[in-house]
Specification:
Layout: E1 2-7, H1 16-30, E2 34-39, H2 44-52, E3 56-59, H3 67-80, E4 90-94, H4 100-108, E5 112-116, E6 129-132, E7 149-152, H5 161-166, E8 179-183, H6 192-201, E9 209-214, H7 221-229, E10 237-242, H8 246-252, E11 255-259, H9 263-270, E12 274-278, H10 281-292, E13 296-301, H11 307-318, H12 321-334, H13 339-351, E14 360-363, H14 369-376, H15 379-384, H16 393-405, E15 409-416, E16 419-429, E17 432-439, H17 448-454, H18 457-464, E18 468-474, H19 478-486, E19 490-497, E20 500-508, H20 511-514
Parallel strand pairs: 1-2, 1-4, 2-3, 4-5, 5-6, 6-7, 8-9, 8-11, 9-10, 11-12, 12-13, 17-18
Antiparallel strand pairs: 14-15, 15-16, 16-17, 18-20, 19-20
Helix pairs in contact: 1-13, 6-7, 6-11, 9-12
């Protein structure tokens, strides 16, 4: 796979877009892909980081909406293809300035496009894959192309390989937290770090230590050094860290203070209890959802919190062992670290010839609940259902638990690289079982509906002890009707359901097939 990553870094936008893209690039490289970064990157340190990872780097002088950006980016893609065997290149767009026009032009040029987003700020998204790695991203109502695959939630959090090498370990939660990590992004143009340092200096905590991470785009290092060394203060073990090893720093820390960006998911992976300060609009929902999940404390907008308020919040967390233990547990459960690998595998899957695409049919698990809910609320799925109203998540959970526990139900999912690409459910009704199925929009039109049914129908009949399967379909649902006819179902009669013309199809299990039931 040829992967081109278009992301920028600088004082205004920080380094988060590039840093999380590096995680995806690492996963792609591990799978023997070719990776190229196309960046407008003000920081020499960031440029060096990309090159040290073994990736190619091409520089963009003027960013979109300057037409030079798109022209040069597409030029790099056309020249960077290494041969026909590598397939159509992928372009990853990570940046809020890559608007619908930029996305559409990239797709129209014949390239596969993955857009990384955080808060659904564009009126329309044009992409083969749309990725939002944030907690409860599934609730956002994205408007995108019909064939766009949506990867939503922390299951797809892009965690860099250096964190994965460190691994998840049982975290020690001391009675009093003494080691504080401060990490507010690679730029921090408003010098919020200074206010956090001043807040820490108000604390009377014996043995308090702090490591203050200053990113490569931070212009305030001298002011921070002056504040830490200012005479007349109580002796403190405060240290400014540049180009530090973040996994080691997070493993060292008892608690952290973070901005509401990419670092949150790294802290969650490492199980660090942390406070969040919101520095930009795209961080506001992330911070609140982290608090809702019990994984962090949301202090809100940094410009609305004074030094005393930050200090009080820090002291409360430092002195509350039970709270920190609970936060660490909940944060750790949010991110398993396999997000970049899942995304890279799905990109490979979409790029492969259809005959070589691996799929797995398995029984549905409770862990699939949220993905099944997201699929069930797809616009096309609701149109084809006899109950067309959107389904509330709370109602779905109750229904889903009931179906998994029922001896009258056989429930299977189509697992593609860890993503639920479809589901099929058989429900026993007297002497027959009734089938219903649905596919994720990205997996429609390539014959997977037939695979979904053919690979489960005998297993379901055996479990439910029946030998006839019924399918009830709205007459306008031509795709499903074609699927059922192609795999041996026959129409048995018409039926009016909720005022809509519908048809009932049936497939029996033959005498020979019954021997295997």
């Amino acid at each position: 796979m040829n992967l081109f990553i278009r992301a920028d870094a600088g004082t205004a936008i920080g380094t988060g877009h590039v840093m999380r893209s590096i995680a995806l690039a690492q996963a792609c490289k591990k799978a023997r892909g070719n990776v190229n970064f196309v960046c407008h990157c003000e920081s020499k340190a960031m440029q060096k980081l990309i090159l040290d990872e073994g990736f190619e780097l091409a520089e963009i002088e003027k960013t979109h909406p300057d037409p030079d950006d798109l022209e040069k980016t597409l030029g790099f893609l056309r020249r960077g293809v290494t041969g026909d065997e590598s397939g159509t290149p992928w372009l990853v767009l990570d940046g809020y300035h890559f608007d619908p026009a930029y996305q559409k032009a990239s797709r129209d040029a014949g390239f596969r496009v993955l857009v990384i987003d955080d808060y659904n700020h564009q009126p329309h998204y044009h992409a083969d894959i749309l990725l939002n790695q944030n907690f409860k991203a599934e609730s956002l109502k994205y408007i995108c192309d019909q064939d766009t695959m949506l990867l939503m939630g922390t299951k797809y959090a892009l965690i860099r390989s250096e964190f994965l090498k460190k691994g998840k370990k049982m975290r020690n939660v001391p009675v009093i937290a003494q080691k504080v990590l401060v990490t507010l992004g690679g730029a921090d143009p408003d010098n919020v770090v200074l206010r956090v340092v001043q807040a820490l200096k108000l604390l009377d905590i014996k043995g308090l230590e702090a490591k203050i991470v200053v990113g490569p785009a931070n212009p305030h290092i001298k002011k921070l050094e002056k504040e830490i060394l200012r005479s007349g203060d109580l002796p403190r073990d405060f240290q400014i860290v540049q180009n530090g090893n973040m996994p080691d720093l997070m493993a060292w820390a008892d608690i952290a203070v973070s901005a509401g960006g990419t670092t949150c998911w790294e802290l969650a992976f490492m199980g660090v209890p942390f406070l969040v300060l919101v520095l930009a609009e795209n961080q506001r929902d992330i911070a609140q959802r982290l608090e809702d999940a019990g994984a962090a404390l949301n202090l809100g907008w940094a410009n609305q919190r004074n030094t005393k308020q930050i200090s009080e919040a820090l002291e409360n967390l430092i002195c509350n062992q039970d709270k920190r233990r609970e936060m660490s547990y909940r944060a750790d459960k949010l991110v398993d670290g396999q997000g970049a690998s899942r995304v890279s595998s799905l990109m490979d899957w979409l790029s492969a010839d259809k005959g070589f695409r691996e799929i797995q049919m398995r029984e549905a698990l409770f862990e699939d609940c949220r993905q099944i809910w997201f699929l069930s609320n797809d616009r096309k799925v609701r149109e084809n259902s006899f109950n067309t109203e959107p389904i509330a998540f709370e109602d779905h959970v109750l229904w889903y638990k009931e179906k998994l526990a029922s001896s009258d139900t056989a429930f299977y999912v189509l697992d593609i690289c860890g993503v639920i690409g479809g589901q099929v459910r058989y429900e026993r009704k007297g002497s027959v079982t009734e089938i219903s199925y649905s596919l994720d929009p990205a997996f429609r039109g390539i014959g997977l509906g037939e695979t979904l049914i053919e690979s489960t129908i005998y297993k379901a009949c055996k479990k439910l002890k029946v030998d006839r399967v019924h399918a009830v379909v709205k007459n306008f649902n031509k795709a499903s009707i074609k699927t059922f006819l192609n795999i041996g179902f026959r129409k048995v009669h018409d039926e009016k359901i909720k005022g809509l013309d519908s048809s009932v199809f049936e497939r029996g299990i033959s005498q020979q097939e019954r021997r295997f039931l």
